[in-house]
Structures are given as structure tokens and as C-alpha cells.
Design brief:
Blueprint lengths: L10 E7 L5 H10 L3 E3 L7 H10 L4 E5 L11 H10 L3 E8 L2 H11 L14 H24 L2 E4 L5 H13 L6 E8 L10 E4 L20 H8 L2 H23 L4 E8 L5 H13 L4 E6 H4 L2
Parallel strand pairs: 1-3, 1-4, 2-3, 4-5, 6-8, 6-9, 7-8
Helix pairs in contact: 1-6, 4-5
Length: 298
């Protein structure tokens, strides 16, 4: 089946990911953006549902699936390939978070993990072991879907940040590779959604300059301070050369998104500056998005 002449191409955003990672938040963001949203659709119904939406001349559909459909999840990669062969724009998003974060979220809400087959009788330690086992099993069951999707790490971001990230991703054209540059603080952990991670903690730190400490890498005074460093300029050149060498190959491999994470100690000065500079340089050829994990959380 192909779209009728004159009909708008259908875009399908498929949201999968770990239980407790924020799939409902992402789905709400897409609903706010005008998508027709369906939660917990069984994989067996994916192709018939999309065919029905095409008959209705729908243009934007968002579908969430989770591990409650574990037995039929292996069908999904072939189904997505079938949809793409029909000319449908398929955009898979996978929401992830660290195990400790997921354990904390389930403990806070007192929800039961969908793969927890038993409740630990009154023993907090046993309950945590059961929960961690369920989370690791879920990772195994979802590994193939994660491999084919753009991953968003929700471990350290608020619901409002996640909504913003999702809206920014679906706002760009999906016909070419999109570069996501993300700054972060090593002291709060490496983003699990990063395809490439660069450590810039060895570069001169504006934090130790009293006048620059309250500023960020987006401020001109900090940028001027960093531009005068040969090491900063060399780091920028090396990252730029690396990406220019490999991006064409990644695009030819049909990658939709590549996330480049740059980390410093606090995620405020050096990493932010380099993300801003790299995004500006690459925006002339690729679609680029900027994220500042620590600044966006303020």
C-alpha cells in the first residue's frame, strides 16, 4: 500500500523503552504537538492500525509499545521495515535510564514492574533484587528495538526537559541524518544515549576565574576566555575532523540520529562552549540540535 496521489505522507513515531523511563511523558508531548496517540498498542495490531490511519488520511501518528507485549516484540523490526517500504516515515524513539534511577522511581511510586512475577514479602532488600532482575530482563527483551531507535537518556532530566527534547526531535525533517550535540557533567554521569563521548576536563576551566564562574559557555566572556587557549582550539579541531570523517559513512548506513556528548566537570563552561561551536559549524551541512543537560535542568 502506498499513499494515494496528493495525500500527505504519514509519519509514525514509535515510542518504546524501559518501564519507568517516561514513555507516557513523551507520548503526551507528541499529543500536544498534534499527533494522534495510542498507548500500549500490541505489535500484532501495528500494521492494521497504520493501514486504517492511512485510509483516514492521517498525517501524524504516535504509538507507544512496551514490554507488556514481550512475546510479540520481535515482530516489530520487520514491521517497521515493511512500513518504510510503503513510503511511510517511521521515527523510532527509545527512552532509557540507568538501573539505579529506575529502581528509585519504582520505589517512589510503589508501582510494580510489569515483569515482576512476584512481590517480595515485606523485605526491602529482596524487593529491590526482584525489581533489578526484572529491569535487566527488560533490557534484554528490548535490546533489538533500542539498537534501531534514537535513544533518549531520561536518568537526570525532568519531565519538562524530556517533553522539549521529544518536540525538538520530531520538529526536524527525518529525511537526513540529524546531529545531536549534548553537554553534560561527568560528576552526574555519562549520558547513556550518547553515540560518541568526548572528555574535555583537561582543558582550562573558567570556573576558577571569579568573574566567569557564574556564567556559562554560551556567554561571550567565557567563549573569549576559551578561544585564547591553544588546547581548546586543538580539541575543537580534533572533534570536528573526527566527525567530518565519519558522518558521511553514518548517513550512508541510514542512521537517523547521531548523539555527540561532550563532558566537563560541571557541564557549565567548557562542554557547553564546544557544543555551541560544533553545532554552529555542522549546521551548514547537517540538521543539528543542541542539548545542555545541566543548564536545561535549571
Amino acid at each position: 500500500m502506498t499513499p494515494a496521489d496528493g495525500a500527505s505522507a504519514l509519519e509514525v513515531v514509535l515510542i518504546t523503552g524501559m518501564s519507568g523511563s517516561g514513555k507516557s511523558v513523551a507520548l503526551n508531548a507528541l499529543e500536544d504537538a498534534g499527533y494522534y496517540c495510542v498507548d500500549n498498542l500490541p505489535p500484532e495490531l501495528l500494521l492494521p492500525f497504520v493501514a486504517l490511519e492511512q485510509e483516514h488520511r492521517a498525517t501524524q501518528v504516535a504509538i507507544a509499545m512496551d514490554v507488556r507485549s514481550a512475546a510479540s516484540l520481535p515482530l516489530v523490526p520487520r514491521q517497521l521495515a515493511s512500513l518504510r517500504a510503503q513510503g511511510i516515515n517511521v521515527r523510532p524513539l527509545f527512552l532509557d535510564a540507568g538501573t539505579s534511577t529506575l529502581v528509585h522511581r519504582f520505589s517512589e511510586t510503589r508501582r510494580r514492574h510489569p515483569l515482576s512475577r512476584k512481590e517480595a514479602a515485606g523485605d526491602a532488600t529482596e524487593h529491590q533484587h526482584v525489581l533489578m532482575d526484572a529491569i535487566e530482563l527488560e533490557r534484554e527483551l528490548l535490546a533489538d528495538l533500542r539498537e534501531q531507535a534514537h535513544v533518549i537518556d531520561t536518568s537526570l532530566i525532568r519531565a519538562s526537559q524530556l517533553q522539549g527534547y521529544v518536540k525538538s526531535l520530531i520538529s526536524v525533517a527525518a529525511s537526513q541524518l540529524t546531529l545531536v550535540f549534548e553537554s553534560f557533567a561527568f560528576k552526574r554521569g555519562i549520558p547513556v544515549d550518547a553515540d560518541y563521548v568526548f572528555d574535555v576536563r583537561m582543558l582550562p576551566n573558567p570556573h576558577y576565574e571569579p568573574a566567569l564562574r557564574p556564567l556559562t559557555g554560551r556567554d561571550e566572556a567565557v567563549a573569549a576566555f576559551l578561544r585564547q587557549s591553544a588546547d581548546v582550539n586543538q580539541m575543537f579541531d580534533h572533534i570536528e575532523q573526527f566527525l567530518r570523517h565519519w558522518l558521511d559513512l553514518l548517513a550512508r548506513d541510514h542512521r537517523s540520529y547521531v548523539t555527540v556528548a561532550i563532558g566537563c566537570t560541571g557541564g557549565q563552561h567548557r562542554s557547553v562552549y564546544l557544543v555551541e561551536q560544533l553545532a554552529a559549524v555542522f549546521s551548514g551541512h547537517w540538521v543539528t540540535l543542541r542539548r545542555h543537560r545541566e543548564l536545561d535542568a535549571r
